[in-house]
Amino acid sequence: MKNLVLEKQIILKIRVLTLIFIAALAVSGLTAFPLETELGLATQFLGINTALPVENYNGLQKWIAFVYQGVSQTNAQFPFMAYGTDWLAFAHLIIAAAFIGFYREPLRNKWLITWALIACAAIIPMAMICGAIRQIPFGWRLIDCSFGIFGVIPLIWLKNLIKKLEKIIL
């Protein structure tokens, strides 16, 4: 009886953490669709007048003004380029959906946690290498790396919960 209660507690923790991870992936993906709108809001929040040249700003304001200018001009002249971020959003949503199988059957799908840990680790070299090639400021690349670093936290917790569950069940 004690093991059954402990098993149910562990499964509940696994499911809650998994739902949080799914939600984070989904929100991250959904925010890739309205980039121009989001950047417009960011410019307003930061007090950036998009009619002024980017050179009028410094630091974060300059970077956001520059990115907004690039996205808005690209969308106006080459709207098909936004299709790339649509695919980025889709990929996040599909990866989130993959975790539904883990939510339902954590032991059977425990491989997904290892795969996700690898993906989180791979974010760092990808952001550093591709970010440098694309001239993304170093600080911004660190923000991108933080997605992998923070993603590891619930995944390691889930991996440990799976080990506990296996000890009880197997």
Report on the architecture of this protein.
There is one protein chain. This protein is an all-alpha fold and 170 residues long. It has one domain (2-169). Helix content is 80%, strand content 0%. It is built from 6 helices and no strands. The chain has helices at 2-30, 35-45, 59-77, 83-104, 111-133, 138-169. The longest helix has 32 residues, at 138-169. It is elongated and about 70 Å long. The mean pLDDT is 96.
What's the oligomerization state? single chain
- Return the domain count: 1
Structural class: mainly alpha
Order of helices and strands: HHHHHH
Q: Helix count?
A: 6
| Helical residues, percent | over 70%
Mean pLDDT: 96
* Radius of gyration over C-alpha positions, nearest whole angstrom: 20 Å
* Terminal-residue CA separation: 16 Å
The global form is elongated
**How many strands appear in the DSSP assignment?**
0
- Percentage of residues in strands: under 5%
List keywords for this structure.
single chain, mainly alpha
What is this structure's SSE topology?
Elements: H1 2-30, H2 35-45, H3 59-77, H4 83-104, H5 111-133, H6 138-169
Helix pairs in contact: 1-4, 1-6, 2-3, 5-6
Quick structural summary:
By secondary structure, the chain is an all-alpha fold. The protein is built from 6 helices and no strands. It has one domain.
